[in-house]
Amino acid sequence: MTALYNAFAASSLNPTPAGTPGVTITLGDVPTAAADPEFVIVGHDGTLEPDGSLSLTPEAGSWTAAFIVTGSPPLTEETGQVHCVAVAQSGDTADVAGRVAEAQRMQGACDDACADLTVSGIKFTPASQGRLATRQSGAGFAAVLAFTVEYTAPW
Question: How many other C-beta atoms lie within 10 A of the C-beta of residue 51?
Fold first, then answer.
């Protein structure tokens, strides 16, 4: 998850030059809505609480391992998924299209960041599945786009 976080943090979500506003990227932590109108969480499946806030205990991902070579030591191949969520929110309850488009833009930047990404033998592939949830209240509108990045790693 750390390699994926680093790739997202170095992506077009955080433009240069330094000091230019970017998107907050976190590794599992849920930013507060008041502090971060746009953010991506690596290691969050987009689960919402009954009040519409992001869950503080989401599923971060899953994996399986299989023997690919017998011998001493035997080698395995791990395949897995890292869940991520892109959130775009605004105090403007009418900005539905804008917030959905921004969440899709952030997810697209994440796809670009992990396309052809290999770190220490771990090969990532862009999002294989996703779901969009929206929430609207008197405080504004939020588009919550959960997506999954797959990986393989020979060990």
Answer: 7
Residues 85, 54, 49, 51, CA torsion sign: negative
What domains sit in the chain, N to C, each tagged with a CATH number? 2-154 (3.30.2000.30)
State the Cα–Cα distance between residues 94 and 72, nearest whole angstrom: 62
Contact (CB, 8 A) for 143 and 88: yes
What's the pLDDT at 81? Answer: 94
Q: Which of 131, 124, 152, 142 is nearest to 11 (CA)?
A: 124
The region of weakest confidence among 11-20, 23-32, 38-47, 89-98 is: 11-20
> What are the pLDDT digits (tens) for 62-82?
999 888 777 777 788 889 999
Half-sphere exposure for 133 (CA within 13 Å, toward CB): 15
